[in-house]
Design a protein that fits this description.
Strand content: 15-25%
CATH architecture of the largest domain: 2-Layer Sandwich
CATH class of the largest domain: Alpha Beta
Strand order of the largest sheet: 5-4-3-8-7-6
Oligomer: single chain
Distance between the termini: 41 Å
Number of domains: 2
Helix content: 40-55%
Radius of gyration: 19 Å
Number of helices: 7
CATH topology of the largest domain: Beta-Lactamase
CATH superfamily of the largest domain: GAF domain
């Protein structure tokens, strides 16, 4: 079991860093260099990591993508949300994201996205992970719901420096627990605060309710 935990720690570290060498991983995770090397060789054999020839650093490989794709597209939240996301993108004309809360309630992971067809768009968050304490609107809304706020909690994201604006509404499961959020993001000039409040918020709340009902939620 300890060997498995060490292997998962290595995968987590590579996910956060992007790429790293044996020595760096060993130092950061306080693991023996020989153990780290054996773990990386095993992961490489199973196509979960690959070695960059120029730098000799390791990074996640296509096997992780296959595993993640299989999980995401078979998960009820994603399967039931996709039609709602597509409809919402059509109605708002902006990029729509689906964020999922991890089991330890420490991170939100973006698992699905429907991008706007407008030429200026916000960089996709698909596949990215954010701390529950981060300033992205999905994390903020879910965190408030975890603290006990009832109903379909909504929160905003207005980045004057980044030029990004957005809003997110919590999705609940059949027990009423917050498990994710549906989110819209756009350049700030296209979606100021008054537009979020008057036009975006009601549609996101309806979408979150729709997805939650599909998951068996009943108030």
């Amino acid at each position: 079991m300890k060997a498995l935990e060490k292997t998962l720690d290595v995968l987590d570290y590579l996910m956060e860093k992007g790429s790293a060498g044996v020595t760096e991983i060993s130092n950061e995770l306080n693991l023996n260099k020989n153990n780290v090397f054996r773990i990386l060789v095993t992961l490489e054999e199973h196509r979960l990591v690959e070695k960059e020839e120029e730098t000799e650093k390791y990074k996640l490989s296509t096997g992780c993508v296959v595993l993640g794709y299989g999980f995401i597209h078979k998960h009820p939240l994603t399967k039931l949300s996709i039609p709602v996301l597509k409809s919402l993108r059509f109605r708002l004309g902006e990029s729509i994201n689906l964020a999922m809360l991890d089991e330890k309630q420490q991170f939100v992971i973006y698992v699905a996205s429907e991008e706007t067809i407008k030429p200026v768009k916000v960089k996709t968050r698909l596949g990215r992970r954010y701390s529950i304490n981060s300033s992205v609107c999905s994390a903020k809304a879910i965190k408030r719901a975890l603290k006990g706020e009832t109903g379909f909690v909504f929160d905003y994201e207005l980045g004057e420096g980044s030029g990004i604006s957005g809003g997110a509404c919590v999705i609940r499961d059949y027990k009423g627990r917050p498990i994710g959020a549906v989110e819209v993001i756009a350049p700030l000039y296209r979606m100021p605060l008054n537009k979020i409040e008057e036009e975006v918020k009601p549609l996101l709340e309806d979408a979150a309710l729709d997805i939650s009902l599909k998951l068996g939620y009943w108030d």
